[in-house]
């Protein structure tokens, strides 16, 4: 009673003191502990202050106030390499904490790592500045030495990633006058520069260092700039620009470049247009050396310089270097660059490059060269013409063709790729070009033009008609017509009778690009020729009806504007409404309601049907920008402007969707859609505008859509959306839940081919070291499953489709953020009532373990003897049967109803005999009592095998260093000694406590087991605290246990 009263008095004294009270609340507010999972907020999830010992854990949670208290109070902290790494990683804003840690734990830190190097590696500018610039040792009155070159070699990767970090380090080295380290830094910087030219980001970073600190760049006066045993790959050197010319030359002359027979000519081809005279001079030297590997670089330099020294004209010198480079490298791109610029020296380069250039660029001089050298093609050749020449120099094209067919040159040369040439000329050039060629070149292969016409291989019917008229007027008497060596009679060259109806349909479907009414009207010539029954009304012949139906279906693909649509209405007044399907769909995709209404006013009803995905609404933003909430605060003005444009576009699109939905509601959908048209419309609407909440918010008419009026179509929407992986699953659930709420019954049987047949599930993220859970609401999933089972047609409740829907939802449920074992049990019971059998694989069982106790999933992940190597599981679907990547696992009932301890023992016995790794992982998840229990139960196994031998030191360290909450180190030591295992002998325990510098543990062992001093032997460096410079423990032992030194035996050369 007295104590309670005293505590209450103290409480009110503190609480009524405004300053103290506000300070307490301020600290509490700054030290909020947040969890990702709401289930972690419970009273048992608290750690006793005295048990918080891990620097790594404190650093990850950023509990700097606790760390300061621990340091000032001189309480035990577990400090190791990982802990220090995490500290320097996370403590980058609190200088006071950094100063305190180093003040109180200086010797511990220095014995484990170098704080300067640690700061650099973790990009901690604050701590680096402190240790390099501000810190002065109180005893020596000197700054910390920067031991830059002790851990890194010159040819290692340059590990500094920040210019500010580099600046602090560099200025620190200069201030300390550490010239050797500066030279080392300079060498490593150059090495990184030379070896990262193909890695753009790193190369730019090192280049920025050179710009800021030009004194670090190799000077012209320096001799050898890299060591003799290092050679830089040629592609890296070529990637350097002309600003580094003297560096390139120096490396070349000193034979520091690695040349291979395969020259990286693609780099030159990509940068060819940007090279200067000096660039080409250096590149030619490299190419010459690459083709003459035995030649000394200085000799190559001399030969090339002599070659150009007497050429006074710079243009001539550049031309010679480009030609020589092309000859050395035998690269068709470089040959083409040269020819396009100079159009000469055809005899100097390879025939293939020469011929390709001449015919693709219509080179008159080149063609004369081929004629003079009696060149002849062997076999079939296809050379694509240069479109720039076709557009800019049509007269050159005409002259080239005239020369080729002049005096029977074509009979000698026999080029047989004219079909592609003619097609390009017809597509790109004005009609007058082909007209001039046909009229003035008697031997031109007109038959090839006819072939293109017959196959409707031209995209413009108007151009086709002009060609037909031209060919019908042409006098063909007089020569070969295929570009080689044959003569053909007139009727073989062109005939209107050769056109086929099937080819015409393909032209309408895929090839014609009709933009004007005039082009559309030109189709009538082919209609009259190939489908006379359309205009002549020849009875009711079934074949005629079939042809007309096919024609209308194909004709629908060329209706691309309102003007063409209106012309179609005039020309084909009795055409079926399906003729306008494709155009209507285009208008829907472009959200063009005005045009849709105009069409509907004319044709009154339409029939948009579909058995495939027809719609693709033109919403450029889709949902990606919508859902991206992780905006960078440092976005520049351009990004902000872009976001405004995107938002405006979204607003406009939603507005237009609202107008369309309002119109469709008035039309009651069925007047515009038939078959699966309604479901296709909504499925693609959800695919394009994925966020249902935003659709509802921005489109009031969506809430007025009566999905109950077309329940079959609504069922299809539910089914398709559920399996559409392009839609975020959370949005899929919202859509399904919304539609289910609107309809009364589900649904017809679907084609099994519609069901996705392969899925992957990942249970663990190696990068974040976390179990993967989704953000779905388990209550929503359960509710959807209940609705489906209530509303599905009773005849379909056990169908494959129903089961697959339930299975897919169940697969997501087990990994959802707030699911419980109780919910899963309720789902199983619900499925049992309806005789639905779910497929369960290890993927599901893993989450059952996780829900039971997260330590179970952690044990499974970390114990390599339990889990498979990969943490990704696949599910295959074959006619409703699922094939998971199975591993043996316990049943749901067993996992739910069995204690944690028994499940652990079952797991270990299920997969393998308990071993050292299993024991270690149990301690790692803070289950030391269970680990000791398993050790005790299997002690005979461990005595007669090496199952524990190779992990014993790790286990001891974990018990001593982890600060276990469930057992004291005193209890753990007593239990380990009781096992009577050599791997946990008392002298081994003592040795580890000394090496870990745990004074409290060392004192306990020596006091509890005094005889251990008589038998303890220290060996080599790894087990000798005196060689490892463990000053704290050695001083403690010398001061408190001198007897220990009197009887201590050293099994090493130096005492």
Keywords:
two-stranded parallel sheet, 59 helices, single chain, 3-stranded antiparallel β-sheet, disordered C terminus, mainly alpha, 1055 residues
Task: Give an account of the 3D structure.
With 1055 residues, the chain is mainly α. Helices cover 58% and strands 3% of the residues. It is built from 59 helices and nine strands. A three-stranded antiparallel beta sheet has the order 3-6-7, with no helix packed on it. The chain has a two-stranded parallel sheet with strand order 1-2. The protein has a two-stranded antiparallel ribbon with strand order 4-5. A hairpin with a 4-residue loop joins strand 4 (764-765) and strand 5. Helix 7 (115-121) runs antiparallel to helix 8 (125-134). The radius of gyration is 41 Å and the shape is flat. The two termini are 61 Å apart. Residues 150-156, 477-491, 537-541, 620-649, 878-886 and 1049-1055 have low confidence and may be disordered.
Brief rundown of the structure:
The chain is mainly α and 1055 residues long. The strands form 4 sheets. The protein has a 3-stranded antiparallel β-sheet, with no helix packed on it.
What is the tally of helical segments?
59
Q: Going across the biggest sheet, name each strand in turn.
A: 3-6-7
What distance lies between the first and last C-alpha atoms, to the nearest angstrom?
A: 61 Å
Structural class label: mainly alpha
Mass-distribution shape: flat
Count the strands? 9
* Strand composition percent: under 5%
């Amino acid at each position: 009673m007295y104590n309670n009263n005293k505590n209450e008095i103290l409480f009110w004294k503190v609480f009524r003191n405004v300053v103290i009270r506000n300070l307490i609340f301020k600290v509490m507010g700054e030290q909020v502990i947040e969890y990702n999972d709401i289930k972690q907020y419970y009273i048992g999830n608290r750690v006793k202050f005295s048990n918080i010992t891990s620097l790594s854990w404190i650093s990850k949670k950023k509990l700097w106030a606790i760390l300061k208290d621990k340091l000032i109070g001189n309480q035990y902290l577990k400090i190791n390499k990982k802990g220090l790494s995490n500290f320097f990683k996370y403590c980058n804003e609190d200088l006071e904490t950094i100063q305190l840690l180093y003040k109180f734990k200086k010797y511990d830190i220095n014995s484990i790592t170098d704080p300067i190097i640690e700061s650099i590696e973790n990009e901690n500018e604050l701590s680096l500045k402190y240790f390099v610039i501000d810190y002065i040792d109180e005893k020596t009155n000197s700054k910390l030495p920067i031991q830059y070159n002790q851990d890194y070699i010159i040819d290692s990767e340059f590990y500094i990633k920040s210019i500010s970090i580099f600046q602090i380090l560099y200025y620190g080295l200069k201030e300390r006058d550490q010239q050797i380290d500066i030279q080392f830094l300079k060498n490593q910087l150059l090495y990184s520069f030379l070896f990262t030219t193909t890695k753009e980001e790193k190369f730019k970073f090192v280049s920025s260092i050179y710009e800021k600190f030009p004194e670090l760049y190799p000077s012209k006066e320096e001799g050898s700039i890299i060591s003799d045993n290092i050679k830089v790959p040629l592609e890296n050197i070529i990637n350097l620009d002309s600003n580094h010319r003297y560096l390139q030359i120096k490396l070349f002359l000193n034979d520091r470049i690695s040349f291979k027979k395969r020259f990286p000519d693609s780099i030159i081809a990509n940068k060819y247009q940007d090279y200067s005279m000096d660039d080409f001079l250096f590149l030619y030297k490299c190419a010459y050396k690459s083709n003459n590997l035995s030649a000394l670089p200085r000799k190559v330099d001399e030969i090339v310089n002599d070659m150009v020294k007497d050429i006074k004209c710079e243009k001539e010198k550049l031309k010679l270097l480009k030609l020589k480079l092309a000859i050395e490298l035998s690269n068709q791109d470089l040959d083409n660059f040269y020819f396009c610029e100079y159009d000469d020296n055809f005899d100097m380069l390879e025939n293939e490059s020469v011929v390709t250039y001449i015919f693709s660029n219509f080179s008159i001089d080149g063609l004369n060269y081929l004629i003079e050298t009696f060149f002849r093609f062997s076999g079939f050749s296809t050379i694509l013409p240069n479109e720039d020449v076709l557009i800019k120099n049509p007269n050159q094209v005409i002259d080239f063709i005239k020369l080729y067919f002049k005096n029977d040159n074509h009979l000698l040369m026999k080029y047989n790729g004219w079909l592609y040439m003619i097609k390009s000329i017809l597509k790109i050039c004005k009609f007058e070009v082909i007209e001039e060629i046909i009229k003035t070149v008697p031997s031109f292969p007109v038959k090839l033009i006819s072939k293109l016409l017959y196959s409707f291989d031209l995209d413009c019917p108007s151009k086709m008609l002009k060609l037909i008229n031209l060919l019908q007027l042409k006098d063909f008497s007089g020569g070969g017509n295929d570009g080689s060596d044959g003569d053909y009679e007139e009727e073989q060259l062109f005939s209107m009778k050769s056109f086929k109806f099937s080819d015409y349909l393909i032209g309408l479907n895929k090839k014609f690009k009709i933009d004007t009414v005039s082009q559309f009207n030109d189709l009538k010539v082919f209609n009259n020729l190939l489908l006379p029954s359309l205009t002549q009304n020849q009875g009711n012949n079934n074949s005629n009806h079939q042809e007309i139906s096919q024609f209308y279906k194909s004709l629908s693909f060329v209706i691309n504007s309102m003007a063409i649509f209106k012309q179609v209405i005039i020309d084909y007044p009795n055409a079926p409404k399906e003729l306008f399907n494709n155009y209507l769909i285009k208008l829907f995709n472009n959200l063009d309601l005005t045009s849709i209404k105009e069409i509907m006013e004319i044709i009154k009803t339409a029939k948009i049907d579909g058995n495939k995905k027809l719609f693709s609404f033109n919403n450029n933003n889709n949902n990606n920008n919508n859902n991206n909430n992780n905006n960078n605060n440092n976005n520049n003005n351009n990004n902000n402007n872009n976001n405004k444009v995107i938002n405006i576009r979204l607003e406009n699109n939603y507005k237009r969707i609202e107008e369309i939905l309002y119109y469709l509601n008035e039309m009651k959908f069925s007047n515009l859609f038939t078959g699966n048209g309604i479901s296709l419309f909504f499925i693609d609407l959800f695919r394009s505008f994925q966020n249902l909440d935003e659709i509802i918010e921005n489109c009031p008419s969506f809430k007025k859509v009566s999905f109950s009026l077309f329940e079959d179509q609504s069922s299809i929407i539910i089914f398709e959306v559920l399996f559409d992986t392009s839609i975020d699953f959370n949005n899929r659930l919202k859509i399904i839940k919304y539609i289910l709420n609107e309809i009364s019954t589900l649904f017809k049987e679907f084609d099994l081919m519609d069901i996705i047949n392969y899925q992957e599930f990942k249970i663990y993220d190696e990068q974040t070291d976390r179990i993967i859970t989704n953000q779905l609401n388990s209550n929503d999933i359960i509710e959807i499953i209940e609705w489906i089972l209530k509303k599905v047609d009773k005849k379909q409740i056990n169908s494959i489709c129903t089961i697959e829907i339930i299975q897919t939802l169940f697969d997501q449920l087990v990994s959802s953020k707030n699911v419980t074992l109780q919910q899963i049990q309720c789902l199983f019971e619900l499925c049992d009532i309806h005789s639905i059998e779910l497929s369960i694989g290890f993927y599901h069982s893993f989450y059952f373990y996780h829900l039971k106790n997260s330590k179970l999933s952690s044990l499974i992940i970390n114990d390599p003897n339990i889990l498979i190597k990969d943490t990704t599981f696949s599910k295959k679907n074959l006619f409703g049967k699922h094939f998971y990547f199975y591993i043996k696992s316990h049943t749901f009932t067993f996992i739910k109803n069995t204690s944690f301890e028994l499940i652990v023992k079952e797991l270990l016995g299920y997969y393998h005999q308990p071993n050292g790794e299993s024991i270690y992982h149990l301690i790692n998840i803070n289950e030391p009592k269970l680990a000791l229990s398993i050790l005790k139960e299997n002690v005979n196994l461990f005595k007669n095998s090496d199952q524990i031998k190779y992990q014993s030191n790790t286990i001891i360290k974990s018990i001593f260093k982890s600060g276990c909450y469930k057992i004291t180190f005193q209890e753990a030591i007593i239990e380990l000694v009781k096992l009577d295992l050599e791997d946990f002998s008392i002298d081994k325990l003592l040795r580890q406590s000394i090496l870990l510098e745990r004074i409290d543990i060392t004192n306990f062992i020596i006091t509890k087991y005094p005889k251990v001093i008589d038998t303890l032997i220290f060996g080599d460096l790894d087990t000798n605290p005196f060689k490892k410079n463990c000053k704290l423990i050695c001083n403690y032992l010398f001061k408190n246990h001198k007897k220990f030194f009197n009887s201590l035996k050293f099994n090493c050369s130096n005492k």
